[in-house]
Design goal:
Layout lengths: L2 H18 L11 H14 L6 H21 L9 H18 L3 H16 L3 H13 L1 H7 L3 H4 L1 H11 L4 H11 L5 H9 L1 H15 L7 H7 L1 H14 L22 H6 L15 H12 L4 H24 L2 H14 L7 H21 L3 H4 L1 H9 L5 H16 L8 H19 L14 H28 L4 H13 L5 H14 L2 H8 L20 H4 L6 H4 L20
Helix pairs in contact: 1-2, 1-3, 2-3, 2-4, 3-4, 4-5, 4-6, 6-10, 9-12, 10-17, 11-17, 11-18, 12-17, 17-19, 19-22, 21-22, 21-23, 22-24, 23-24, 24-25, 24-26, 24-27, 25-26
Protein name: AP-5 complex subunit zeta-1
Organism: Gossypium mustelinum (Cotton)
Length: 569
C-alpha cells in the first residue's frame, strides 16, 4: 500500500468513526482532526483520474451521515460546528451531480440550524462569506433564491463582526440582490447601525450571541412579557413604573416591539414598513444619541455608507426601471429617518440624493411616474433642512429633464403648478417656513434667509426650464418671473436671476440651448450653453441680449441684429 493510499484510508476511517459515534453530547466537531480529514478527502476526490468517481461514491455516505449528526447536535453541544459543516457542504456542491445529492436542503439546514447560532463567531462568519464567494456562480445558477432569502442573516454577521468582513461582504453583495430582495435590502442596509444596537442589547441581556439562537431568546422572553401584562391588568402599573432593579438602559428596547423583531430576523419576509415614529424606536434612537458609542457601532457607521454605494451601483447597473421607480419613494421617506449620528447622516443623505439624480438621469420617464411623491415632497419643503434639500434636488431634476420630456405634457403641467405654489408661498413669507419664533438669534435668521434665497433660485430655474421644454407654459412662467423680479426680496440675487430668465425666454434661439433639454429631442441633440448659430435665422426674434449674458444692467450698448452676423442665403 502506498503512502497516499494509507493517508486516504486513515482520513476515511476518521470520518467513518465520527459518523457512527453515538455520543451526541460531545458532537463530531469536538475532534479537531475531523475537519482536516474532511478537507483532505475533498482534495483526493478532486483529482482528475479514473478512480475519482469511485472515491466520491465511497466518501459520500460517511459525509452525509456526519452532516446529519452534526446538525442534530448543534443545540446540544457548545463546540462550533460551522467550519465542519461548511467543509461538508463544499463536497456536496462539488460532487452533488456525481452522487445525485441535492444540496439545497442541506444549505437551508446549515443556515437555519447552525449559522443562525454562530453568526457572531468571527471565524465562522469569515469562512461563510468566503464559502459564498467561492461558490457564488454555482449558488446563483442552481439555487438563485438562497442568498436573497437569507440576506438578513448575512447582514447580521457582517454588522456584528465589523470592518474585517467589509471586503468579503462586498464580493457577495451582488448575489444578495434579486427582484424579491432588491427593495427590502435597501432599508436593511440603512438600518445597520440600529441592528448593531439591538444585537448589543441582546448580548447584554442574554449573554454571548455565539451558540444562542436569537429567535429562541425572543421566545424565552414570552413568559416575562405575559406576567408583565397580567401585572399591569391587575395593578394598573407597568414594569417601568415600578422602578425595580432594571436600569434605564436595559429597557430601551422591548423584545416584543415589532421593529425589534423585524431587525433581528434571519430571512427575507418582503418589504415591511418600519415604524420610525413608534415609542420603541424613538427610545432606541434617543438612548443611542445620549450614550457613548461602542467600537462595533463606530465601525458600522463608517462601513454602512460604503455598502450603500455598492448597492446603488448594482441598482443602476442591473435593476429595471420598475424596481428603481418603487425604490425612490422609499428613499424620499428615509432621507429624514436615519440613525442620529451627524457624520453618518451627512454621508448617507449625500449618497441618497446622488443616487436619486442618477436614476432620473438614466430614466427621465420616472419623473412623471413619480409625480405624486415629488409634489408631496415639494409641499413638505418647509418641515426640516433635510426635506428642504430633497425639495431642491427634486426642483433641479424636474427642470433639467423637462418633467419627463415633451410627451408628458399633463405631468409637466401639474409639476409646474406645484412649483408655482411653492414659489408664491415663499414670496409671501419672509422666512423658509420652519415655524421658528419671531425672536430668534441673528445666525438662525441669516441661515433662514440664505435657505429661502437658495430655494427660490432653484424654483424659478425649474419653472423657466419647464417652460423652455413645454412652450405652452411660457405665459405662466413669464408671470411668475415678473412677480419675483418685482418682489421686495432682501437678497438681490433672486430678483437678478429672475430678470436674466425673463430676458432669456424672449430669445428662443439662445434660451433653448442654455436652458433646454440636454438629451436628444425629436432627433436633434441640444448642448446646454452652446448656441447653434445656423438656426439663428429662424429662431431668434430680437437682438442678441449681450447685456444679459454679460451680467450688465441697462439697455444694450449695440445697435445690430443677429441677421447682420449670419451669412445670407
Amino acid at each position: 500500500m502506498s503512502a497516499e493510499e494509507g493517508d486516504w484510508n486513515f482520513y476515511l476511517r476518521t470520518v467513518s468513526n465520527s459518523a457512527r459515534d453515538s455520543n451526541i453530547a460531545n458532537g463530531p466537531a469536538s475532534d479537531p482532526s475531523l475537519l482536516h480529514a474532511v478537507k483532505k478527502l475533498c482534495e483526493f476526490c478532486k483529482r482528475e483520474d479514473k478512480t475519482s468517481d469511485d472515491l466520491v461514491a465511497r466518501v459520500y455516505p460517511h459525509l452525509n451521515k456526519l452532516f446529519q449528526r452534526s446538525v442534530a447536535s448543534v443545540s446540544q453541544s457548545n463546540s462550533s460546528k460551522g467550519l465542519l459543516l461548511l467543509g461538508i457542504l463544499q463536497f456536496f456542491l462539488d460532487f452533488g451531480e456525481v452522487v445525485l445529492h441535492d444540496a439545497d436542503p442541506s444549505l437551508h439546514t446549515f443556515i437555519r440550524s447552525c449559522l443562525s447560532r454562530e453568526f457572531a463567531d468571527p471565524i465562522v462568519a469569515a469562512a461563510t462569506l468566503d464559502f459564498l464567494y467561492v461558490n457564488k456562480n454555482k449558488l446563483l445558477i442552481s439555487f438563485p433564491n438562497l442568498l436573497p432569502q437569507f440576506f438578513p442573516l448575512i447582514l447580521k454577521l457582517t454588522a456584528w463582526n465589523g470592518g474585517k468582513l467589509e471586503k468579503p461582504f462586498l464580493k457577495v453583495l451582488p448575489g444578495l440582490v434579486s427582484p424579491g430582495s432588491f427593495l427590502p435590502l435597501f432599508p436593511s442596509l440603512m438600518d445597520l447601525p440600529i441592528l448593531v444596537v439591538a444585537l448589543e442589547k441582546v448580548e447584554r441581556s442574554s449573554g454571548s450571541l455565539i451558540g444562542n439562537n436569537i429567535a429562541s431568546i425572543q421566545k424565552s422572553k414570552a413568559p416575562e412579557m405575559l406576567l408583565a401584562l397580567m401585572d399591569e391588568a391587575y395593578t394598573g402599573t407597568t414594569v417601568g413604573e415600578r422602578g425595580g432593579d432594571e436600569s434605564e438602559e436595559s429597557s430601551t428596547i422591548n423584545v416584543a416591539d415589532p421593529l425589534f423583531l423585524e431587525l433581528l430576523k434571519d430571512e427575507n419576509d418582503g418589504l415591511v414598513e418600519r415604524h420610525w415614529t413608534s415609542p420603541g424606536i424613538a427610545a432606541v434612537l434617543q438612548a443611542a444619541k445620549n450614550s457613548p458609542q461602542s467600537d462595533r457601532l463606530k465601525q458600522i457607521l463608517n462601513i454602512a455608507p460604503r455598502l450603500l454605494d455598492a448597492y446603488f451601483t448594482i441598482a443602476l447597473r442591473d435593476a429595471n426601471s420598475s424596481l428603481i421607480c418603487a425604490l425612490i419613494p422609499i428613499l424620499m421617506t428615509r432621507i429624514s429617518a436615519l440613525f442620529p449620528d451627524q457624520n453618518y447622516m451627512y454621508k448617507v443623505r449625500r449618497r441618497l440624493l446622488e443616487f436619486m439624480l442618477a436614476a432620473f438621469h438614466r430614466s427621465p420617464d420616472l419623473i412623471p411616474l413619480l409625480k405624486k411623491p415629488i409634489i408631496d415632497r415639494l409641499g413638505n419643503a418647509y418641515d426640516s433642512t433635510e426635506k428642504t434639500e430633497l425639495a431642491l434636488q427634486l426642483c433641479w431634476a424636474v427642470g433639467e429633464y423637462g418633467g419627463g420630456g415633451p410627451t408628458h405634457k399633463d405631468a409637466a403641467r401639474e409639476l409646474f403648478e406645484s412649483l408655482e405654489l411653492l414659489l408664491y408661498e415663499n414670496l409671501s413669507s419672509s422666512r423658509l417656513g420652519l415655524r421658528q419664533e419671531s425672536a430668534v438669534d441673528s445666525n438662525r435668521k441669516s441661515f433662514s434667509k440664505s435657505s429661502q434665497s437658495r430655494l427660490l433660485c432653484f424654483v424659478i430655474t425649474a419653472i423657466t426650464k419647464l417652460a423652455t421644454h413645454h412652450r405652452e407654459l411660457l405665459p405662466r412662467a413669464r408671470v411668475a418671473l415678473i412677480k419675483v423680479a418685482r418682489s421686495r426680496i432682501s437678497d438681490s440675487r433672486v430678483s437678478k436671476r429672475a430678470h436674466v430668465y425673463l430676458g432669456l425666454i424672449d430669445e428662443p434661439g439662445i434660451c433653448l440651448p442654455v436652458l433646454g433639454p440636454s438629451r436628444p429631442s425629436h432627433g436633434f441633440v441640444h448642448y446646454p450653453g452652446t448656441v447653434n448659430w445656423n438656426e439663428g435665422g429662424n429662431k431668434v426674434v430680437a437682438h442678441i441680449p449681450f447685456y444679459i449674458l454679460g451680467e450688465q444692467e441697462g439697455p444694450p450698448f449695440h445697435d445690430f441684429s443677429l441677421s447682420d452676423a449670419l451669412p445670407r442665403r
